[in-house]
Amino acid sequence: MTDSIQNKILSYKDEMLNNLARLVQYNSVQSEALPGKPFGEMPAAVLAEALQIAEELGFKTTNLDNYCGYAEMGEGKDIIGIAGHLDIVPAGDGWSTDPFKMTQIGDRVYGRGTTDDKGPVIASLYAMKLIKDSGRPMNKRVRMIFGCNEETGSLCMKHYREVEEPLAMGFTPDASFPCIHGEKGSMRIEVTSKNTKIIDVHGGFVSNAVCHQCTTVIPAEISKEALEAALAKTALKSFTVTEENGTLTIFAEGVAAHASLPLLGVNAAGCTMQALADAGFKDDFVEFYNSRIGTTCDGIGCGLKFEDEFGVLTLNNGLISMKDGVITCTLDIRVPVTVTEEQLRSSSAPYLENEQGKMEILRIGKPLFYPKDSALIKALSSAYKDVTGDTEHEAEVIGGGTYAKALPGIVGFGPEMPGMDYRIHNADEFMIIPEFLQCVEIYTKAIENLLDA
Length: 453
Description:
single chain; 4-stranded antiparallel β-sheet; alpha+beta; 453 residues
């Protein structure tokens, strides 16, 4: 990229941030479906806003039944796709600023979606604008797709595939740099109790994040002091124990993290179950939970401890709840790319059920993998290296799942820089403004490389 391109990007800084704030203001968590709005009111509203921004930038736009939409430029049969999402995970607690009013502090802006994924959507749109305004001839179309259901199933991209042309190649700006050449497979397990003395338990806010808060009510069969002593030995950030009317109520606070990186978090439910056992509370489900899930993240208790050259298996308990005397937990498992479904099923089979509890495999998803020397990975990786000068980091395999598994021909590419935690799926999610500007430059170069491919 030339200095003139960098200056042009800088001239758009305020406009880009203002447009990002327009998207951040929407609490676009999926909600109850409405007529013509399959993911609820707010996802449809933020999609309309994004399409309006794209029209203001001079792009042709299409709304695909409020499942998703797109902005397009260029001519030709082949389509270079850029797929970003406008839906978000719930804000949760613990924010220092209003999560739906983008707030700048120094060189950072805070708000839900600033990095995941509304900020990268704006960066990609302006990369397209820079190319369009340059007058460069294009014999391919470039299409920015705005999805509304990435966090809860990617049904938006299923609809896209049903009603639109396939993409030739492209990327989703919903991962990290330099480039993602593989995504682990996935496994979903539901855990249920058979017998338990626990009166009530509720924790977590989404299945694909570490359960960072948990409230548990038990009969006061053990002393409050013994329970507090056991909780103090865990990794919890904080806890309280209240004794009333023959019950003990535990509120436990751990640390939130994305399900693909559960070791960065602290599972409040797991710590509570561990402390209950250590304090002498005898209970079938507590024993089942501690033996199958516990506070580790490697799946060993389920017979699922796997590793290959691209990474290890990770297990995350995101939600725990109780209804009609039955406890239910969700397990979000990310599987190394070389591990097969047959291996997963056969290895876990002896652990799925006993007299204390049951685990049911709900789904096993396939991994995604491109060799590092494939044309797509080389085109994207070189764009990152040309702009940043970073030759140390290489394309990697991640545990996170993106639109790359829903749209053939694309891979994850940015916006996260190596080694930085942007508090995605956590309180105080942020985006760094100089990185954001550089991201626009990287995406501009990447689109040019794909146009030349």
